[in-house]
Write a structure and sequence with these properties.
The complex is a heterodimer of chains A (118) and B (378). Chain A is built from 5 helices and 6 strands; from the N terminus they run αββαβαβααββ. Chain A is of the alpha+beta class. In chain A, the strands form 2 sheets. Chain A has a 3-stranded antiparallel beta sheet with strand order 2-1-3. In chain A, strands 4-6-5 form a 3-stranded antiparallel beta sheet. In chain A, α2 packs across α4. The radius of gyration of chain A is 14 Å and the shape is globular. In chain A, 38% of the residues are buried. Chain B is of the alpha+beta class and 378 residues long. A 7-stranded antiparallel beta sheet of chain B has the order 2-11-10-5-4-3-6. The longest helix of chain B is centred in the C-terminal third of the chain and has 29 residues. Classes of the chains: A alpha+beta (118), B alpha+beta (378). At the A-B interface, α2 of A face β12 of B.
Amino acid sequence: MSQRERRSFVVCEACDVSKEVDDPNEAVAFYRRHRSITGHDVAWGWADFDGLESSSEDDLASVIAGLEDRFEDGVPLGIVSAAMADAGRTIGETLEAIRSLRMDGELYEPRDDHIRVT
Amino acid sequence: MTRWNDGTDATASVSPDITDETNALPAKYFTDPAVHEMEKEKVFSRYWVYAGHANAIEEPGEYFTRTIGDRNVIVLRDKDREVRAFYNVCAHRGSKMVDDTPMTDPGSANGIRCPYHLWTYDLDGTLRSTPRSFETAGMNPDLEDEDVPKLDREDNGLMEIHLDSIGPLLFVNFDADPMPLEEQAGTLKEELESFPLEEYELARRYVSEVECNWKTFSGNYSECDHCQANHQDWIKGISLAESELVVDDHYWVLHYTHDEGVEAAESLIEGEARFYYFWPNFTLNMYGNADGYGTYIIDPIDEGRFQLIADYYFKDSELSEEEQEFVKLSRKLQEEDFELVERQYQGMKSGALAQGQLGPNEHTVHRLHRLAQEAYEA
């Protein structure tokens, strides 16, 4: 496997564009910029980060709870979205689901773009 | 002359005349984060910047948003069918009002309502209404209801931004007293308005993020000395020897001739391709081998990244197979250029080069660098 293939990346299928990321939350920033200009959602093409565990579980709160021990200051949104990618969720879908849980008080944000279960 | 960061040489100004010495813009203006911040004010707040295409908002109430630097604006068509631009900021306490709405998926509303306290504005920006809590003082023991001043509709309206157009192409300017668009555009306005740009529909938008300064890509777009070595598929049908670069004050245009141009009678220019660069960050691409045109917005994200927003316009938004192939080739060209400019930027970021020098046929790049320097010094 080449070095290029090992880097994590996100894709917009509608634009036929991919973006390599070194930090999981870079994917979230890319999604926000891309959506503001195109309205398109973005999905993970490949994700490999420290602390990320593959999961086919679709219950978002459980996935976040399962990741919490590895991220003392909160789980980066990018890690959560990458974990949910195995369940077929796009980044936009995961962020929307996170927002909904936050509005219900089930999650809080100890620092920007990092979340923990309440 | 080339100047290395070897501890001895200082940089000089961009040469006034490319027939004399050919200094490029010093490298730090491509790599310094402070320059990116400066450009928000000195470049993107003082010149006319492309906002979008009028065809996207044909009906009253239709709108899209556009972010330029740190400013988010709403571009809408009012009830008199005039296109206007406003800061996406409520006059009450400064809240952002409408969500980001791309030109490719415009919104529609009969007014603009801030979700925070429901101040509502007409499409001409005047304040239409506020909730009753802003008309009475029931919760304030120091004020009687009848003493509550009535809000002036215009004084408490939205902040409008200067907007003008070249055909259907909409431009905004954040300066309080900007130079007229005609002055910045020069002969470009008349030239572009001689083409039926409004008869073409937006068919595709591709957005890419590239790891280099926006001016690095702009310089690459502005010359084709690199094409022979790097765009093998594209140059097959081009007579590069017959190409021409023309420079005006704030724009330049690259002319090419295709060996086999489009046959359509309505084509913009049969066989002749024109690539216009309009300072600071807009291009219009006329294809001699396809009946359509494209635009690029070269939007900086920070000093080391930009977004290329590539829009393609054709007679019909439903593309034929041939047109789809054309767009695919165009995307391939972009990818080839991204690789070139990212490679160039990696070199520039190393800090070795203090100031490059331009070639004798890079007078378009020279103009770009001169305009940047003039903006910084203004």
